[in-house]
Structures are given as C-alpha cells and as structure tokens.
C-alpha cells in the first residue's frame, strides 16, 4: 500500500488578501479634502488672474481711497439703466406707440451688458440694491460699503427720472413699474420674486467675487434681463430692481405699488443666496482670490494659512 502524505494547504494569495474593499478603494481614489480645496483655490486664482488681465481696473476694487470712484460708477450705471428702462415707456408715450414692448424690454438688458463691459471692473456693476445685499450675504462684499452703494443706486435712478420729466414732462407714468391690467399686487410680487431669484442666481454664478466683470457675465446677465422681460413685463413690468422702481415712484409721488418691488426682489435675492449655497457652498473671498484680484499672484498653499 502506498501512503500518500497529505499535501499542505495552499498559501492564500497575497494579492487577494491585500486587495482593498470597495469602500477602501473609493477612499484611496478620492483626493483628500485638503487637496480638493487646494485645487479649487488654484482654479479660482487662475480665473481671477485672467479676469484681471482682461480688466486691469479690477485691481482698484478694494482700494479705500477710490471708493468715490466706485460710488460714481454705481450712480452713473444705475442712471443709464433706468434711462433705458423707464425711458422706453416715456418715449413710447411721446411717440404715440413707436416703441414696441419687445424694444422696451430689450433696451435695459443691452444697457446692462454694456455697463458691465465698460464699467464692471470699477464698482462691480451691481446697479441694484438686492444684488449688493446678495453679495454681502455671500460674504463677497463688505457690509460697510453696501449702504453707500444702495444710496447712490437710488439717487441714480431718481436723477434719470428727473431728467425724463424735465425733457418730456410726466408722460407714460415716467416708466413706472406697476402690475398689469387685471393683475393683483400679490401676483405681481410673486412674479418679481421668481424673476429676481433667477437674475441674482445668474449674477452670483457668473460674477468674480462681488464684481460683474467680463464678457460671459455681461452676456449672461444682460441676456437674462431681456428674456425675463419678454415673457413677464405685462404682469409686473419685470423690474427685479427696487432702485429701478423707486425713481419713477418718487418723482410721481405715488408709492401705492412700491411694496411689490421691494418684497418680491428682496425675497428673490434671499432665495438666490440659498441656491448659491447649495450649488457652490459658502461664499467669502479666499486669500488667493483677493490677491489675484489685486494683481498679486499667490501660491495657493499660502491661502490655507
């Protein structure tokens, strides 16, 4: 009889024994949080640096000695915006209907587009109190400067309507934004809320820090204003801007509907800030972003310290 010795059990395959589980594999493949933050900081730094090359005046955005220039830019920009927005209604009345609704809602959007391109690097081209408030809530714009911005925006809107009054008289309601025929105030307010949520979301998504600057921002913001006006102007006037509505109401001395154009846009901007938090996380200008905005290229690893 031939005895066959029991063969030793096979050694376990080290590659199998050491192979990571699915969860461990995902953990090893995913970059650490610090590296992901570093990557995003680098992307933001490069984007700001490119925008600074395109618009060198961005470097002056945080210079305290030039605040007067930024305030003048906001006043002039809002003046031009309201001239186009309210002027459509005034000139339409004077010319007996020569200004179509399409032209009346397109003019403000194209005006904003031009303002962002030629003046956005100076003040950020907010032109709207709720935009300034949204940037403040996102911690992209200091609150100590917000009050001055809002005041000059209201002044610019008022000066535009005073100019239209002086030239043409109080015709066409000076382009005042009011609910359309058969539209209740609450209906117009809700439309303004939704429109402004979309507008401010577009601005927060395309702006660099607290600045509407660059071609993409100009096209996105100006295009949104035109599109919003094309379908909603018969309902609420598609104001989306308390300053735009303030100017005509002050000169006419009629604030009967003005609450619609405060509550709706303000609530819409708050919703947009919430949407921005969900999509992109908390705001706030990181150190490398501020450095790039001031023309100083900074090692992103220094931004973590």
Mean pLDDT: 82
Beta fraction of the residues? under 5%
* Uncertain parts: 1-5, 286-305
Structural class: mainly alpha
Q: Tally the helices: what do you get? A: 12
How would you explain this protein's 3D organization?
It is a single chain. The protein is an all-alpha fold and 305 residues long. It has a single domain (42-284), classed as Glycerol uptake facilitator protein. It is 67% helix and 0% strand. The protein contains twelve helices and no strands. The protein has helices at 14-17, 22-29, 33-54, 67-94, 101-123, 129-137, 143-168, 185-206, 215-236, 242-252, 260-280, 287-293. Helix 3 runs parallel beside helix 12. The longest helix has 28 residues, at 67-94. Residues 1-5 and 286-305 have low confidence and may be disordered.
What order do the helices and strands come in, and which of them pair?
Blueprint: H1 14-17, H2 22-29, H3 33-54, H4 67-94, H5 101-123, H6 129-137, H7 143-168, H8 185-206, H9 215-236, H10 242-252, H11 260-280, H12 287-293
Helix pairs in contact: 3-12, 4-5, 4-7, 4-10, 5-9, 6-7, 6-11, 7-10, 8-9, 8-11
């Amino acid at each position: 009889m031939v005895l066959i010795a029991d063969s030793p059990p096979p050694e376990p395959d080290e590659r199998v024994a050491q192979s990571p589980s699915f969860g461990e594999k995902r953990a090893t493949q995913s970059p650490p949080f610090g590296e992901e933050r570093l990557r995003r900081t680098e992307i933001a730094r490069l984007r700001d640096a490119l925008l600074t090359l395109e618009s060198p005046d961005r470097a002056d955005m945080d210079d305290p000695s030039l605040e007067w220039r930024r305030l003048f830019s906001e006043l002039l920009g809002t003046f031009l915006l309201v001239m186009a927005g309210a002027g459509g209604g005034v000139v339409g009345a004077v010319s007996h209907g020569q200004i179509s609704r399409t032209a009346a809602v397109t003019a403000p959007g194209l005006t904003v587009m031009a303002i962002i391109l030629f003046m956005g690097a100076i003040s950020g081209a907010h032109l709207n109190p709720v935009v300034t408030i949204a940037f403040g809530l996102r911690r992209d714009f200091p609150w100590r400067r917000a009050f001055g911005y809002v005041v000059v925006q209201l002044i610019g809107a008022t000066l535009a309507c005073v100019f239209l009054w002086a030239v043409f008289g109080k015709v066409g309601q000076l382009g005042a934004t009011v609910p359309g025929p058969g539209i209740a105030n609450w209906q117009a307010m809700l439309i303004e809320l939704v429109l402004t949520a979309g507008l401010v979301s577009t601005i927060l998504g395309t702006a660099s820090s607290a600045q509407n600057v660059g071609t993409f921002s100009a096209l996105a913001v100006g295009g949104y204003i035109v599109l919003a006006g094309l379908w909603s102007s018969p309902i609420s006037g598609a104001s989306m801007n308390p300053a735009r509505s303030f100017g005509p109401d002050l000169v006419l001395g009629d604030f009967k509907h003005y609450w619609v154009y405060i509550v709706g846009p303000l609530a819409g901007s708050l919703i947009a800030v919430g949407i921005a938090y969900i999509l992109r996380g908390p705001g706030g200008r990181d150190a490398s972003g501020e450095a790039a905005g001031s023309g100083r290229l900074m090692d992103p690893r220094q931004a973590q310290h």
